[in-house]
Write a structure and sequence with these properties.
This is NADPH-dependent FMN reductase-like domain-containing protein. By secondary structure, this protein is α/β, with parallel strands linked by helices. It is 41% helix and 17% strand. The chain has one domain: Flavodoxin domain (Rossmann fold, 3-Layer(aba) Sandwich), CATH 3.40.50.360. The chain binds flavin mononucleotide. The site of flavin mononucleotide has 15 residues, from loops.
Length: 190
Amino acid sequence: MTEKMTLALIYGSARQGRFCDTVASWLIRELETSDVFSLTIIDPVRMKSARGDKSAGPAEWMERKVAEADAFIVITPEYNHGYPAALKEMIDAVYEPWHAKPVAFVSYGGASGGIRAVEQLRQVFGELHAVTLRDGISFAKAWSKFDAAGNLYKPEEMRAPLFLMIDRLTWWARTLKYARKATPYNEIAA
Ligand SMILES: Cc1cc2nc3c(=O)[nH]c(=O)nc-3n(C[C@H](O)[C@H](O)[C@H](O)COP(=O)(O)O)c2cc1C
C-alpha cells in the first residue's frame, strides 16, 4: 500500500462564532475516510495560541505545519470583497515550505460565495510558487445551505464538484511530491 499524503485544511476565519467551523466540519466528514490523504488542520486561532508556546512560536508552528503537508485546501470566507487578515498573517508566516505545492479552495460568503476572496488568494499563492487549482467549491449564502446541526440540506449536490476537485488535487499533489523529490525546487535556480 502506498503511504498517504498529508492534506492540510487551512481555516480562513479567526472570528468568534465563525461559520468556518461549519464548512470545515462538513469537509472533514467528507474526507476523513480518504485512502489518499490524511488530514491536518491549520487554524489561525491555534497559531495565535502558539504565541504562548515556548517550545514553538507561531512562525515555527506554521513552518512545521506547511512543511509536513503535500497539499492544501483553504476554507475562506469573503470580507469586504477580499479574504480575512488572519489568513494573510498565516500565509505570510512562511515562504519556502509553500513552494511547488498545490492549493485548492472552498469558499463561502454572501451573494458571491467568496469567489472574490479566492481570486485574490490566487495572486498571493502565485508569489509563493504554489499551484492553485481551477476547480473549487463555493457556497453562496452559505448559512442557507446548512441545517442547525451543520449538515448540508443537499449533500449529494456538492459531492460531484468536491470529488472532482479532490481528484485533481490528488494528481497535483502526487506529481509535485515526486518532482520535488527528484529535483528539490530551490536547486533549480540559484
Ligand atoms: C467584516 C465582514 C465583511 C463581509 N464582507 C462580505 C463581502 O464582501 N461579500 C460577501 O459575500 N460576504 C461578506 N461578509 C459575509 C461573510 O462572508 C459571512 O458572514 C461569513 O460567514 C463569514 O465567515 P466566518 O463566520 O467564518 O468569519 C462579510 C462578513 C464580515 C464579518
